[in-house]
TrEMBL record:
Coiled coil: none
GO biological process, one term: mitochondrial respiratory chain complex III assembly
Keyword Membrane: no
Cited InterPro entries: UQCC2
Keyword set, alphabetical order: Mitochondrion, Mitochondrion nucleoid, Transit peptide
Pfam family, one: UQCC2_CBP6
Organism whose genome encodes this protein: Monopterus albus (Swamp eel)
Highest taxon of source: Eukaryota
An annotated GO cellular component: mitochondrial nucleoid
Name this polypeptide is given: Mitochondrial nucleoid factor 1
Amino acid sequence: MSATRYRQFLKLCEQWPRDETKKGRDLGMFLRQRVASAFREGENTQISDPEKCDQMYESLARINSNIYRQRFPRVRDTSFTGVTVEECRLILSGKMDEEKKGLWKTLMNRFSKSPEDVPEKACEK
């Protein structure tokens, strides 16, 4: 039975997209590492909790197949910041040139609060 689970996870890892712009932060790479460590003996690995393993696989498979994106479609492809998907990818990649860093600074100024901006809480007794 663990051989079937192992093959399911391998197939899921093959299907999971890689994002080369997120070196060291890519969910696909993390998933591959976790599968490799969980199934160290390959198909011969003994699984201590098969139900939990199956639940984890089903959850990851649903995420990978975009079930929730289809079930709950977005009205726009922007976030509350108004940043587009491409701009968000650029910011998260860490590979912004000098002219694009203005966008990052604008966002940081817009959503970061200084200590003066946060109201003090009254002491409760």
